[in-house]
Specification:
It is built from eleven helices and seven strands. By secondary structure, the chain is mainly alpha-helical.
C-alpha cells in the first residue's frame, strides 16, 4: 500500500512507524501536550527510551550514532518549556475598586461606565452577568435586582457607543486588553467557571494555540486540553458541547482544518 494512498490519517501514522522500524529505527511516541503539562515526567520517559535504544546498538553503531562530545546536546532539541507552560495565566478578578457614592443609583451613567471599564480592564473578555456580579460586589451587595442590572446595562451601552468595548451577544471585550487564556482554578470566582460564562473568543484562542502546538489531534483531545488549560480537572458535557461548537466555527472560518478524525491548523 502506498503511504499517501492509505485511507486515513491514523493508518498513515501507523504505516509511517512500521516503515521506519523496518529501516532500523526505534520509535518512542510522545504526545506533545503531555510534554507541556508534565515535562519532567516525559523527559524521564524520553531518557529511559533513549538509554534502552542505545543498549540495543552495537558498539560501532553507538559511536556512529552519537559522538561522545555531542551526547550532552541530544535533549537540547526539545522545544523550550515556556512556549506552552506560560501560555495560560491565572484568572485575575477586580476587587476593592473605589466607588464614588455608597448608593449606585445616585451615580451618573458615565460613572457607572467608568467602573465597568475598570473591571473590564482586569477581566476582559467577560460575560455581562459576571460583570454585573463584579459591579454589585464593589458595593458589598450579595444580590443584584433588575434595577441594578439595567444600571449596568446602561453603563455598558456607553462603552459600546464610544467603541472602547466590543459586545458579542452576552460577552464584552475591552479593546485595549489583549486576549489571553486564563486558568480558572479553585481560587477564581465561581461564576467564571461556568461554561456558559467562558467567552467564545478565549476558547477559540486556546483551540488554535493547542492545535498549532500539537500539530494534529482529535476533537476529544482538543476539548480535554482546553479544559485542562483553563484549570478544570474534568470536562463537563456542557463544556464539551460548547468547545465542539467552537471547533465547528473555527473550521468554517478556516482557522482549523479537519481531515478524517484529526484537527490541524493552516500553519501545521
Amino acid at each position: 500500500v502506498a503511504y499517501h494512498s492509505s485511507p486515513s490519517a491514523r493508518e498513515r501514522d501507523r504505516l509511517r512507524q512500521s516503515i521506519l522500524e523496518a529501516q532500523g529505527w526505534i520509535i518512542h511516541r510522545l504526545w506533545g501536550i503531555d510534554f507541556f503539562r508534565k515535562k519532567d515526567q516525559e523527559l524521564e520517559k524520553i531518557k529511559a527510551a533513549y538509554d534502552e535504544a542505545l543498549a540495543l546498538l552495537t558498539e560501532s553503531d553507538r559511536v556512529a550514532l552519537v559522538k561522545p562530545e555531542e551526547e550532552k546536546n541530544v535533549f537540547h532539541l526539545i522545544r523550550e518549556e515556556e512556549e506552552m507552560s506560560a501560555f495560560a495565566v491565572p484568572y485575575e478578578f477586580a476587587q476593592g475598586l473605589r466607588v464614588p457614592d455608597p448608593d449606585p443609583y445616585a451615580l451618573y451613567p458615565s460613572q457607572i461606565a467608568n467602573i465597568a471599564r475598570e473591571i473590564l480592564a482586569v477581566e476582559s473578555p467577560m460575560h455581562i452577568d459576571e460583570l454585573t456580579t463584579r459591579m454589585r460586589e464593589q458595593w458589598g451587595w450579595s444580590r443584584a435586582g433588575s434595577k441594578f442590572r439595567d444600571l449596568v446595562a446602561d453603563g455598558v451601552g456607553i462603552l459600546v457607543k464610544d467603541q472602547s468595548v466590543l459586545r458579542d451577544g452576552s460577552y464584552l471585550n475591552l479593546k485595549s486588553v489583549p486576549l489571553t487564556v486564563r486558568e480558572r482554578n479553585e481560587n477564581a470566582p465561581a461564576g467564571v467557571r461556568k461554561p456558559i460564562h467562558i467567552p467564545p473568543a478565549e476558547i477559540d484562542f486556546a483551540l488554535v494555540h493547542i492545535a498549532e502546538f500539537a500539530k494534529v489531534l482529535t476533537r476529544e483531545e482538543a476539548a480535554k486540553e482546553v479544559s485542562v488549560m483553563m484549570g478544570f480537572k474534568a470536562i463537563s458535557a456542557e463544556f464539551r458541547d460548547i468547545i465542539n461548537s467552537r471547533i465547528e466555527y473555527l473550521i468554517s472560518k478556516g482557522d482549523l482544518q479537519q481531515e478524517a478524525e484529526k484537527l490541524t491548523t493552516s500553519k501545521s
